User: What shape does this take?
Amino acid sequence: MTATPGLGTPQLASPDLFRSVFRQHAAGVAVITAQGEHPVGFTATSLNSVAAEPPLVSFGVGTSSSSWPVLAEAGHIGVHILGEHQRELAATFARSGADRFAPPTAWRTGPEDVPVLDGVLAWLVCRVVARVPAGDHRIVIAQAVVGDPAGAGRPLLYHQGRFNALRD
Assistant: This one.
């Protein structure tokens, strides 16, 4: 491989290269929840709007995640769009081994018995329609059933390994 003028030297694809490239990609921050024997949830930066008709979303989840066994069986999941005031909530749901639903996390049981977080910018409860194998992850595709877009504030972003606020 040769260097391209103005760019660095290309590297062969590896997990480290892949992570380094995607640290340059700013992404919105969401928390995905589901109900099993106990509620589970994790911070996701892979949330995507797939289609408006029917209303579909997708996200990736690692099969080694503590949430995966519940998500693998869940009929419904919660999708929560976090605001810039929720950095600590995002960190809690990203932290391995944390009791994510203990105080100060404020939540309630929502439609379809899905855990719904309080104070988020927007939330959806979705019916899972597919789980697609993708390496060490699964891509979950879910159809929105009910939601609320009325939260106040600005979105939380993830960039360069940190939670950030949107700047004008």
Summary: The longest strand covers residues 122-134.
